[in-house]
Automatic annotation (TrEMBL):
Cellular compartment(s): Cytoplasm
Key words, A-Z: Cytoplasm, Ribosome biogenesis
A Gene Ontology cellular-component term: cytosol
Record family assignment: Belongs to the RimP family.
Species of origin: Bartonella rattimassiliensis 15908
Pfam families xrefs: DUF150_C, RimP_N
Gene name of the record: rimP
Ribosome maturation factor RimP C-terminal domain residues: 103-173
Function (record text): Required for maturation of 30S ribosomal subunits.
InterPro entries linked: Ribosome_maturation_RimP, RimP_C, RimP_C_sf, RimP_N, RimP_N_sf
PANTHER family membership: RIBOSOME MATURATION FACTOR RIMP
Example GO biological process: translation
Name by which UniProt lists this protein: Ribosome maturation factor RimP
Length: 208
């Protein structure tokens, strides 16, 4: 990937954004991530260890190492301290997207076409708002989800527009693990136990 392609990928907007405190954190960290060669995947407040602020980040090519997490932490941690967005004690977690990653940009859907994903929409489609199936026929406007576990009476194929999505992530399968290992050189160098493929996620935790 040349520098022009990297810049283009770093500038690609996300399909949906956070609300409330999570949105405030996102607006703070996005401008400081780009000069370092990173882009935001998502910000999420989790009720674990009391309160955890998870900032999920990746490079333009989708990779993320422990060293990258350290760089991001050293950059955003002082910023969060100064802005004091969260007025209580919390843990800061800088992490990579992992294999069963969130799908937050159109390029994510193109990149993982053919794999199983779970999708949630803000409108009712065929009487439902939650879907699971293989990502197919992807265009700049949307895609077709071919269900892998259709219940009686459910449509096998469902067209979904990008503008109607509020949440999307890959489903961990053997095929996804194999494909991820082929596509990501950093990931292929890591040992992924059969009973816990998500050990490949790079994560750093800090108490604030």
């Amino acid at each position: 990937m040349n520098e022009t392609e990297k810049i283009s990928k770093l500038d690609e907007p996300r399909l949906f954004e956070e609300d409330g405190i999570e949105a405030q954190v996102a607006s703070l960290v996005i401008p400081v991530l780009k000069p370092l060669g990173f882009r935001l995947v998502r910000v999420k407040l989790l009720g674990q260890n009391g309160l955890t602020l998870q900032i999920m980040v990746e490079r333009a090519d989708g990779s993320m190492t422990v060293e990258d997490c350290e760089i991001v932490s050293r950059t955003v941690s002082p910023l969060l301290d100064v802005q004091n967005v969260i007025e209580r004690k919390y843990h800061l977690e800088i992490s990579s997207p992992g294999i069963d990653r969130p799908l937050v940009r159109k390029s994510d859907f193109f990149h993982w076409q053919g794999h199983i994903a779970k999708i949630e929409t803000n409108i009712t489609i065929d009487g439902r708002r939650k879907f699971r199936g293989a990502l197919t026929n992807i265009t700049q406007d949307g895609f077709v989800l071919n269900t892998d576990k259709a219940a009686y009476g459910e449509a096998i194929s469902t067209p979904i527009s990008f503008c109607d999505i509020i949440n999307a992530h890959l489903v961990l399968t053997d095929e996804l693990i194999r494909d991820a290992l082929k596509k990501n050189k950093d990931l292929s160098q890591q040992f992924i136990p059969e009973n816990n493929p998500n050990d490949s996620i790079q994560t750093l935790n800090f108490e604030k």
